[in-house]
Amino acid sequence: MYNAIKSNKVRSYLLVFFFLIFVIAVGYIFGVVLGYGYPLLALVVAIAIGMALFSYFKGDQAVLKLSKAREVKKDEFPLLVNIVEGLSIASGLPKPKTYVIEDSAMNAFATGRDPKHASVAVTTGLLNKLDRTELEGVIAHELSHVKNYDIRLMTLIVILVGTVVLLGDFMFRSFLFGGPRRSRNNQGSGIFILIAIVLAILSPIIAQLIKLAISRKREFLADADGALLTRYPEGLANALEKLSKNTEPLKSANKATAHLFIVNPLKNVKGNLNKLFQTHPPIDERIKRLRGM
Fold first, then answer.
1. Are 243 and 223 in contact (CB under 8 A)?
2. Which segments within 147-200 are labelled E, that is strand?
3. Average pLDDT over residues 212-222
4. How many Cβ atoms are within 10 Å of 175's Cβ, its own excluded?
5. What is the DSSP code (8-state) at residue 96?
6. Catalytic residue among 142, 241, 248, 285
7. Which of 169, 191, 211 is the last residue of a domain?
8. Is the pLDDT of residue 180 over 50?
9. Who has greater pLDDT, 237 or 167?
10. How far apart are CA 122 and CA 110, in angstroms?
11. E-state strands within 53-103
């Protein structure tokens, strides 16, 4: 567990570092080819640093807002709050803020940059369809993400993936519609066309690969750690079984935030190519491992 925590912290810093390098390199190419030079590069660096800081300090709030989650009080959902409080004490973690998403689909996620700034969100559908032991299993899984610093990586990825995609799209459109200072050098324009096309094609793939930086093994780790916390693997196994049978998509979920949830909330994702880029392990395999404990 300690190795996993250390690994996640290191990967967080590396993710931000390589993201900044990528943005700086693209900004440099963009400035040179279009004739804007170093002023554009300076602007791109400033934007990259700003996005990195925003994702670190405010990314969790952005995710909660995108998911249409609202903070709850104890008298509103006493069972949920009691479970979060009890498991937080048992795990030695500060109590995270508790949120609900008004949706009949079944799902949950955790977010925040560290255990002191963590939040746990569940759908009302999950609260209505799971019993206490199953709900404890789900909350324990999410608190394990908090404990193992998975949420720091997850929050960064939500912001950074979107930035990478938008940057590639911005470059392509800038060339397509032209700029007042676009280079008159045909060779330079040809190089830019090639770069723009490659980026336009690869940006979605790059985004998916960044999401996959969160290893599927980390979900297995959160399952195991959650089962260790409750001392009852069957609770989470039963919850995952119910979640696997729930075919209702979560309305507020999207491809940028899907990897945060305990199971993929986009139920209409089909095709072998999409399965290749899944960020979650197969639920059947997760249930099998839990029941084998």
1. no
2. none
3. 75
4. 20
5. P
6. 142
7. 211
8. no
9. 237
10. 9
11. 69-71, 97-101
In terms of domains, do 127 and 14 share one? no
Q: Is 0.90 topped by the overall pTM?
A: no
Q: Is 219 a catalytic residue?
A: no
Highest-scoring range by mean pLDDT, 138-152, 244-258, 273-287: 138-152
pLDDT tens digits along 147-179: 988 877 776 766 666 667 766 676 667 666 665
On whether both 144 and 235 belong to a single domain, the answer is yes
The CATH code of the domain that includes 247 is 3.30.2010.10
For residues 104 and 224, membership in a common domain is answered with yes
Number of domains observed in the structure of the chain: 2
pLDDT digits (tens, 9 = 90+) for 247-257: 888 988 877 78
